[in-house]
Amino acid sequence: MKTKTVHETISLPDVPIGKFARVRSLPPDQILSSRLRELGIHENALLRFVGDSYGSIVFEVARSRFGLSKVAARRVLVSVDN
């Protein structure tokens, strides 16, 4: 019998620095979620949290670094990979 793994869901800025996280859901705002998808940030994408600075966060996705406002980042839900 298979057991289903349940991951705790947190917002992107709550990921510890240096840890990887998997995107679980994007904001319902079509403009923001569309832009995030253009950057490679989509459901199930793997991100690494690099740090934060002056109201923005920095993260890596597919070997590229991006900055995102903390306000927008709080609307991206992720689970931290162990």
Task: Record keyword descriptors for this entry.
single chain, 82 residues, alpha+beta, SH3 type barrels, 2 helices
How would you describe this structure to a colleague?
- The chain has two helices and six strands, in the order ββαβββαβ.
- It is α+β, with helices and mostly antiparallel strands.
- The protein has one domain (10-80): Roll (SH3 type barrels).
- The chain starts with 9 loop residues before the first strand and ends with a strand.
- It has a six-stranded antiparallel beta sheet.
- The model has no long low-confidence stretch (mean pLDDT 89).
- 17% of the residues are buried.
- The chain has helices at residues 30-38, 70-73, and strands at 10-11, 20-25, 46-53, 56-61, 64-69, 77-80.
- Helix content is 16%, strand content 39%.
CATH superfamily: Ferrous iron transport protein A (FeoA)
> Could you give the count of β-strands?
6
Q: Bin the strand percentage.
A: 35-45%
Low-pLDDT stretches are none
Number of individual domains: 1
Query: So how many helices?
Result: 2
**Shape summary:** globular
The second-level CATH architecture is Roll
Integer average pLDDT: 89
Cα distance, first to last residue? 23 Å
CATH class equals: Mainly Beta
Give the helices and strands as they follow along the chain.
EEHEEEHE
Sequence of strands across the biggest β-sheet: 1-6-2-3-4-5
CATH topology: SH3 type barrels
Helix proportion of residues, in percent? 10-25%
Largest sheet: 6 strands, antiparallel
Indicate the structural class.
alpha+beta
Radius of gyration: 12 Å
